[in-house]
Amino acid sequence: MSQVWIALGSNLGDREESISRAVAKLATLDLPPSRLSHLYETAPEHGLDEPPYLNAVLQTESERDPLELLHILQRIETELGRPPVGPARSGSRTLDLDLLAAGDCIEGVDPSGNAPSGVGAPGSSGIGTSAPVCPEPESADARAELILPHPRLHLRSFVLVPLCEIDPHWRHPLLGRTAASLLAELDVPPGSVRLHGSLGLEPAGSGPYPWRQLPARGGI
């Protein structure tokens, strides 16, 4: 049983409802959240002229193959209104689900053991020979679409802020850095990530997740 980390986002329609429905759908597929962050309103990446996003991160547990998990997330996106293909998929969206990490699994590295393109955070290094590697996908095409950990999670404040709320000590399997230290490296513009509220979907038996003081630059 591996810990699985999933990022959720939406910037079209009823954003909170879309994320809430995605969390509920995951629970029906034996992927209930064991930890769930608050919602954060965030500015679009790269200054794009788009509506602001709501973002959250959840942690669950699963014995499923990571590629199967990726396909589950893609199906939920489609069911909740995101086009599976075409230009509309990469723009504003009703729902965006990203598989951030699955245990210590590393997938999508080149034969030399270097990180995939885009994994170049400060202090990064190649993986050691003992690094866990994902199960082999069924085809080369399948392998190409699966990159773990997510290749840009260490560069995204809208992922690291909610991740730090629920587990600032989570350690990036490839970079060897904690979520808190990765967030501290980012230059986050004041007001670009704002606490929005709670989904009210805390797992049974748990209390509300506390807001943590985050070690970040700028006025989050």
Provide an overview of this structure:
The chain has helices at 15-28, 66-79, 140-145, 157-166, 179-185, and strands spanning 2-10, 35-36, 39-42, 53-62, 96-102, 193-197. The protein has 220 residues and is α+β, with helices and mostly antiparallel strands. It has one domain: Alpha-Beta Plaits (2-Layer Sandwich). Strands 1, 2, 3, 4, 5 and 6 form a six-stranded antiparallel sheet that branches. The chain is globular, with a radius of gyration of 17 Å. The N and C termini lie far apart (34 Å). Mean pLDDT is 78; it is low at 85-89, 110-133, 135-143 and 205-220.
Question: What is the gist of this entry?
Answer:
It is built from five helices and six strands; from the N terminus they run E-H-E-E-E-H-E-H-H-H-E. It has helices at 15-28, 66-79, 140-145, 157-166, 179-185; strands at residues 2-10, 35-36, 39-42, 53-62, 96-102, 193-197. Helix 4 packs antiparallel against helix 5.
Itemize the secondary structure elements and their pairings.
Blueprint (H helix, E strand, L loop, with lengths): L1 E9 L4 H14 L6 E2 L2 E4 L10 E10 L3 H14 L16 E7 L37 H6 L11 H10 L12 H7 L7 E5 L23
Antiparallel strand pairs: 1-4, 1-5, 2-4, 3-4, 3-6
Helix pairs in contact: 4-5
